[in-house]
Design brief:
It catalyses: uridine(44) in tRNA(Ser) + S-adenosyl-L-methionine = 2'-O-methyluridine(44) in tRNA(Ser) + S-adenosyl-L-homocysteine + H(+). The chain has two domains: 89 residues, no CATH class; 121 residues, no CATH class. It has ten helices and eight strands. Strands 1-3-2 form a three-stranded antiparallel sheet, covered by helices on one side. Strand 2 and strand 3 form a beta hairpin.
Length: 296
């Protein structure tokens, strides 16, 4: 509907209609084939000669549909636009009342049947606005989709929240400690207490919480992103004890082992810098750098 000279390419994947999930109507076809036929039908109703092709990509959903040429002259644009508006409204009507439950009918019957069931005439107001308002109430996505998984938050803000939460857990139960047996010396390493996400949130200021609420998952996502420091299980936040981390059971191929070794110690150890007892692991066992001289 953008313009008469518009062409399109579409690679159908998830089964959706204009106003929700696509409802199957033909049991004699696979769901994928039926959906491809529906998308082709949309192109046909919009006045395109629809072509089908198969892409050479590693996916089970690799059939694409292409519309390069119109089936009508430019002088009939207004008429086709009304036809498109009616088609969209009819699909919405059927989606709401689930009126079309027939199976095994062909491509042409499907198109004609849907139009007849919902009525052949457009409401007066729809006729007047067919060329200007395509789908009243429809809100498209922004051209640039915002990243809201806490990954785009300023590093200093994230570091400040991580330090606040870690200190909160460490100070919640200062008497709680874990035995550390490295090099034959019995030391204690404070793992702190575990708190619920709600309890942690109650100790953060309003401005911080407001900023986190604009992200998907909020506080929980930020803590999970900082896997080195925290472990979030069943809604409770713990300080991660790297001595308890189980090594991977899978034997990696030589190439992957070499690559992982090359990537070793590319970040500083948070515990070495911030934890009052330092890191629970010795330098040679910790996957993070104990000081800038160990960074690769």
């Amino acid at each position: 509907r953008s313009s008469y000279s518009c062409c399109y390419f579409v690679l159908p994947c998830c089964f959706f209609d204009f106003h929700g999930k696509y409802s199957r109507r033909q049991s004699k076809k696979t769901q994928y084939r039926e959906y491809l036929d529906f998308v082709a039908q949309v192109g046909f109703v919009c006045g395109f000669h629809v072509e089908e092709d198969c892409l050479r990509i590693p996916s089970t959903k690799r059939v694409c549909l292409i519309g390069k040429n119109r089936t009508y002259p430019p002088t009939e644009c207004a008429l086709i636009d009304k036809q498109i508006t009616q088609y969209i409204n009819n699909r919405q009507t059927c989606a709401v009342v689930t009126c079309d439950r027939r199976v095994g009918f062909n491509h042409k019957d499907h198109c004609d049947g849907v139009c007849k069931e919902a009525g052949s005439e457009l409401p007066e107001n729809e006729t007047d606005t067919a060329g200007t308002i395509w789908m009243p109430g429809f809100q498209p996505r922004e051209k640039v989709e915002q990243i809201r998984n806490c990954a785009s938050l300023p590093r200093d803000f994230v570091d400040d929240v991580v330090l606040q939460v870690a200190n909160l857990l460490l100070n919640a139960a200062p008497q709680k400690s874990c035995s550390n047996m490295h090099g034959g010396n019995r030391n204690t390493w404070n793992q702190g207490e575990s708190l619920s996400l709600k309890e942690v949130a109650e100790h953060l200021n309003k401005e911080t919480l407001k900023r986190l609420k604009s992200e998907y998952g909020g506080l929980q996502t930020l803590l999970k992103n900082n896997h080195q420091v925290f472990e979030v299980l069943n809604g409770r936040v713990h300080i991660r004890d790297w001595r308890k981390e189980k090594p991977s059971r899978k034997t990696k191929p030589e190439v992957k082992r070499r690559l992982s070794a090359e990537a070793f110690k590319t970040r500083l150890c948070w515990f070495f810098i911030h934890h009052p007892d330092g890191c629970s692991l010795p330098s040679e066992s910790c996957p993070y750098a104990h000081g800038t001289e160990e960074l690769r």
